[in-house]
Design goal:
Layout: E1 2-6, H1 11-22, E2 26-31, H2 39-49, E3 55-59, H3 65-75, E4 79-82, H4 91-94, H5 96-116, E5 121-127, H6 151-170, E6 174-179, E7 182-183, H7 192-202, E8 205-208, E9 215-216, E10 219-220, H8 221-233, E11 256-261, E12 267-268, H9 269-280, E13 285-288, H10 304-310, H11 318-333
Parallel strand pairs: 1-2, 1-4, 2-3, 4-5, 5-6, 6-11, 7-10, 8-13
Antiparallel strand pairs: 9-12
Helix pairs in contact: 1-2, 1-8, 3-5, 5-6, 7-9, 9-11
């Protein structure tokens, strides 16, 4: 297939591009290499795939409507995976406009590109953040998610609503993926594992929010990407049994689907830190802090629909995943 991926210099997008190129797909990759975090890390990811003849690297902002229109018309992708977004819960408190520009304006440009160029299937990144104030666990795609607690979460919920509209109006098959705390080699420097590792090795304290009482459904990068590929290959179909008297939020009469991609095994934050300390062979200095605005105490993914529809369930333990991250981190930063 010819697959357009937005965010190919990003953590998930780059690994996805590697996997799809390896199986023989042609990839059109869009990224703007913005400086939200270390650009040299983004460039290093791109260097892994830049010489593959089946990869076309396009430098563009998805919020740039004329440019996105030209890219779709020129390359005519069969399927699209939208992973480009302004990420991060806490940063959304500092710079809310960045989330509207990228996650709302950018996403409508992707939807329009798919609509006008006969794209077979759009898969897009949502987030476990959409569950917001929900406390009924595990979080299910069939639960109501109308109470986000950050603008980042609201922008991802908006993406799901926008996608449904296009599925309904234009019969565009769309699948939204709610990712749960992705971690692993080549990860984002603003994420906890990266920050913890950097500070522990430097002998500096690590900030532990909610006094360490978080539980997170940490999900290893390879498991996330496998889930993306399985759902990309499984084009969303209408749910013929959908009933407006008892509406299912994860499907529709239109070709629309939502899935959680999570490890289905929440881990105490303090255990996560203990695993990291073991892998590094060094103790952390803990700076215990209250719950941050926009954060939620716990996440826990119900993945029944993912298992039923695409026969996949993430299964990498934090012990294995953190060890692989530490091995990568120490190797990468010994060379830079």
């Amino acid at each position: 297939m010819k697959v357009l991926i937005t965010g190919t210099a990003g953590f998930i997008g780059n690994k996805l591009a590697q996997r799809l190129l390896a199986r023989g797909d042609e990839i059109i990759g869009i990224d703007n290499l913005n400086d939200y975090y270390d650009v040299s890390l983004k460039q290093a990811r791109l260097d892994i795939i830049k010489d593959n003849p089946a990869f076309t690297d396009v430098r563009a902002n998805i919020e740039d409507r004329p440019v996105i229109e030209k890219i779709f018309k020129r390359y005519k992708p069969d399927r699209v995976v939208n992973l480009a977004a302004q990420a991060g819960v806490r940063y959304s408190l500092e710079n809310p406009h960045a989330y509207i520009d990228s996650n709302i304006v950018g996403f409508i440009n992707i939807l329009e590109g798919c609509r006008h160029n006969d794209v077979e299937h759009l898969v897009y990144a949502s987030s476990s953040s959409v569950y917001g104030s929900n406390t009924n666990m595990p979080f299910s795609v069939h639960h109501n998610v109308n109470h986000p607690v950050s603008l980042y979460a609201a922008s991802k919920k908006a993406n799901e609503l926008m996608a449904h509209t296009y599925s309904h109006l234009y019969n565009l098959a769309t699948t939204g993926l709610r990712f749960f705390t992705v971690y692993g080699p080549w990860g984002r420097p603003d994420m906890a594992l990266f920050l913890f590792t950097k500070n522990i090795l430097a002998g500096k304290p690590i900030d532990v929010f909610n006094y360490g009482n978080h539980r997170r459904d940490f999900t290893y990068i390879d498991d996330i990407v496998e889930g993306v590929i399985r759902t990309l290959d499984h084009v969303a179909q209408p749910n013929d049994s959908w009933n407006s008297d008892n509406p299912d939020s994860a499907s529709s009469k239109a070709p629309y689907r939502l899935y959680n991609i999570g490890n289905n095994q929440p881990v105490e934050l303090m255990h996560y830190i203990e695993v990291l300390q073991h892998c590094l062979g060094k103790k952390a200095q803990l700076n215990m802090l209250p719950l941050q605005p926009g954060d939620v105490p716990d996440t826990y993914a119900d993945v029944v629909d993912l298992v039923n529809d695409v026969d996949y369930k993430p299964n990498t333990t934090v012990e294995d995943g953190v060890a692989k991250f530490v091995q990568w981190y120490q190797g990468y930063y010994s060379q830079t």
